[in-house]
Amino acid sequence: MDTLRVRDAKDVEQVVRAAIANDQPLEIIGHGSKRQIGQPMATNAVLDLSALNAVVSYEPNELIITVQAGAPLADVKSLIDAKNQQFAFDPMDTAPLLGTAGIGTIGGMIGAGLAGSRRIKSGGARDHLLGAHAVSGFGDSFKTGGKVVKNVTGYDLSKLLAGSWGTLAVMTEVTLKVMPKPESERTLVLRGLDDIAANRAMTAALGSPFDVSGAAHLPASVFRPSGDALAALASPGQSVTLLRLEGIEVSAASRAASLTRLVAEFGAAEVLKDAVSTGVWDALRDVIPFAAGGALGAWPVWRIVCPPASGGALGRQLARETGGDVIYDWGGGLIWAAVPPRPDAQAATVRNLVEAAAGHATLIRASEEVRRHLDVFQPQAAGIAALAERVRQSFDPKEILNRGRMARGTPT
Amino acid sequence: MAIMMPAADEAVLARRDAIVADLRAIVPGEGVIDSAAEMIPYESDGLTAYRQPPMVVVLPDTTEQVSRVLKYCQEQGIRVVPRGSGTSLSGGALPLRDAVLLGLGKFKRIREIDFDNRVVVTEPGVTNLAISQAVAHAGFYYAPDPSSQIACSIGGNVAENSGGVHCLKYGMTTNNVLGCEIVLMSGEILRIGGKSAENPGYDLMGIITGSEGLLGVITEITVRILQKPETARALMVGFAQVEAAGECVARIIGAGIIPGGMEMMDKPAIHAAEAFVHAGYPLDVEALLIIELDGPSIEVDELIGRVETIAKGCGSVTLQISTNETERNLFWAGRKAAFPAVGRISPDYLCMDGTIPRGALPKALTRIRELSEKYGLGVANVFHAGDGNLHPLILYDANKPGEMERAEAFGADILRCCVELGGVLTGEHGVGIEKRDLMPEMFSEVDLNQQQRLKCAFDADGLLNPGKVFPTLHRCAELGRMHVHGGKLAFPDIPRF
Q: Does the structural domain A48-180 have CATH classification 3.30.465.10?
């Protein structure tokens, strides 16, 4: 298979135009760190963006950074970290879960749109993408949005690009919002709550004025002996519920004290500080208990998003009926479920329960064979699916870009 | 009227009586208004310089009625202009002579308050402020706060992606809505999202928000609510030069502080506001910053101290810190009344809405002063300094021949200047008709064609709110055509591996 390593946006246009002329669908990659996610694609050439890796401009005082889509996320993160700034949506590193190497590129970060624990406070990738230059499936470069944080000029096409898994357009340059890193953080640790009680504790915390920036729950069964930050938190047979507060030192400390009182009915809270706290949340964001190299490495993993207050009940049912393990983030609004392997990754069981709870489920990790025969992304109601398809066609009528990645049934 | 609207379809107008009768069959009683006198309140929105009576006004009660009206109009080839409270400052709800004006004013019910999931499910005609009031007893509020929040509807907020003073810290409408029920021009009713943080598939909610009523008619919205911060305090800081005020803003952000609000006023705006509300604003400064910190008291007290140090380091000439709610509200009184205050010193004013990179503020203000001299019209500037959103108020007298045209030309030049400085045409008011013909200053034809193709995915016949946002209308078939760029050679000149 041809891999075409483009040098600039003009190259991308040329490649896409040639692909249209020859009906040769393209797989769009940066570092290829997330290639295992999605339906197996019907593509026969690879468009590699990793050489489009420049930082175009970084203006900390404007809270924006403009980079080419192939820029390594790790490098960009260290660049903004040096100015005490961050991507507040806390992009997930899928490498541990998928067993791949490297955190990937900025383009992949946006195309996947997988936000971490701070999603509940700061939003997702879609909330931080301010503008983009991209090449559509018409082979034309277009821009959308701008390089300022406040802008309503024209349709907000950036929202569609975030989380579109490269099926609408090939981003070449993007402008992202950056935010100051909190000076300090505290994490309250509650032990021994069942899923329902933990969900209630998280709901109470998130309904408080203490500006909680992370609310997660790990049932006892997910703790297995290993050297990671989460395992260090375990005590035998006990679940762990985590509530994070970030900000300036005096504020984080004071809110930690107030929140401890608020959740006292759920038990006494231990407090983790700064680096220890950060390590725990990083491990949680990357779903380390289900890592490819760990005990559940061979199990399919579902990413389930649902109304947060019903997460506890849904997760408990999922664990019972699949025989799997679950981890809760976003106050119950995000559930990671690792399920014992079956040819269908227990899709029918998972989706029935999730749909009954008004949620949606994506199969993030499974073998290609499994992914080929089921819907990786949540199937949508007919009207929405038809509209989404018309939207896709408005960008890429010949289905040249990542053909078949988001929708099953595309001829391969 | 300087802005050309699409030519009216005389064949539709000729059938007006029959159309009114058909619409009455769908929306009975007083829901269809066709008398010239009763349609007057609908002939304009917040951009009052433009007026046009619609063909007929329809005020449905139910989603089902909205669906049937749209389906009927689609089948009959009749244009539709949706309208919320009619507070748009860009002419987004300006009627067309041959169009049905579809008002959502009867959708006034909050359907559900769900504190556990921290959402409110509401009909679109509910005002922005009413949502906050409905949840205030539990300490919650809805964060986006456009200055028209007493009157503007949440449906209109979604259509325009409205902002407000607090959006630097809490985001715009798009960052605070989770789902909606939307009726397409075909009459199809779709439900998008709900109480979950994210929706599956493409982010349709994200594209509907800010689409200015061109993609569909929203009949229900799910918004996020937040707990009110424990306290808020403000600093009011005067500077002898605009540059110093701009530097102060940059240093505050640079120090990692994101204030709840950070507003700047220039001298003419300060004087107009002070004469109106007597807030105790210093009159001998060139720029005044109002910086509000909100959160836990202990945090706010600490940050007030840090901001004070920064402001003094930037050469502030006056500095006051609120010690109670009365003082804080007084600081804000002048800023919040800035538009009516300017209305007192000038028969008419045009409110512009460009965004620039914060650092370009001194350049922008210099350029605006030059343009003010060139056009012979006064200008007062208020500025959401935290996010670079500039609101120059151009003073003119519509009764003097040619002044309105001059004011519009002045405004257009300001927006061109915003784009030249790396900014955009509109930060929160929307394109509507007001900035429609300036879109090519910011977007190429290719850019605009991609946006219009998206419009085609929702409304293939272009019947919903035509004449807004896009300077040139193309047929969907033409936009969807694939131009073959020659080159049968597979992937020429690209490095291979």
A: yes
